[in-house]
Amino acid sequence: MSNSPRLSRLALLTWMVAAAVAAFPTWEEWRFRLHPGPVEMHACMGSGWLETSPLDLLRGDLDGIMQNVEAWAIPALLVLGGFLACLGHRNPRSVGRRTAGVLVLIAVIKPATPLYASAEECGGPIPILSTEWFATVMSSWGSTQLCLLGAAALVLLVTRMVSGANSKRLEVASSTGVTWRRPVALLVDYAVVLVVLTFVVQPLLLLTGIDEFFSSIYLGYGLLNGAGLSLDNADPKPLLVLFVVFLYFWAQHSLWGQTPGKRLLRIRLISTRTTVRPTAGRTALRTLIFPLLVFAPVAGPIVLIVDGVWALFDPEGRTLHDRWANTDVTREVSNVQAQM
Fold first, then answer.
1. Could you tell me if 260 and 192 are in contact, meaning their C-beta atoms sit under 8 angstroms apart?
2. In this predicted model, what pLDDT tens digit does every residue of 96-123 receive, in sequence order?
3. Dihedral sign (CA 47, 51, 57, 62)
4. Fewest CB atoms within 10 Å of the CB: 1, 6, 191, 260?
5. Is 141 helix (H, G, I), strand (E, B) or coil?
């Protein structure tokens, strides 16, 4: 019994070190923003920057999200959330795996999202997934990645220590088991929405002649970047994109409780009160909260990050917008499994 206090102090110290290590990239980011140093200007004329890739849309949105993740100390808050979840009698190993997994994911995604320029004069952007792009991404690994990977290792270590010291702690498992299925399903729906906007909505605008009075849809580098609302811009284009996004999620959730992404991952939306798909009004409220609130100026990316982090440590694995809308996402159960 004499080892328990020592282990508790050691575990607390390890959590503190992990949070400090995870916060170091944010400190570096703000130090650079406050003291950026001398600015170098380069002029280049040519058409090298016209080459784009279909993955640029996803890359652009991820780049914006990663910038907010680093600026708002999300990695350190993840570690703090893992610590509080363990104090709340959650299964330490499960919390450790989730927290470390997200830290590693941030470390891998961040250097892969910026728009890298070729070293050649007026060389333009480096094509995604090319040999030069892979070499540039690998050379971009630095202190941020080392800190995030180090924090992930510390989290796994301390949660393994805690679970070993208190093996009788009961595991509080998620009732849905869809924590990692939901972001994959959302990624599928993201791609489907882009296809609808590009190959359905845009041609309809051209065929009907509405584009003469309505600006054509141009998403630029990302759905969030191209359709984000602006307080000082009255361009109606984002409103059309938001209407398509709203109709996509609201109609399918109201009729079937599933989008193509959810169908592929075999999950569905239900009401926590009736355990069947929500009503059209409830689904409309949920859609206004997510995903439309993500397009709000300034606060949108933060809403997306907070909503996702909440699901990692929620006792039932539910997102914050599901909590507010009294809905849940659960896995489909086949008839054979239901009879068993």
1. yes
2. 999 999 999 999 999 999 988 887 766 6
3. negative
4. 1
5. coil
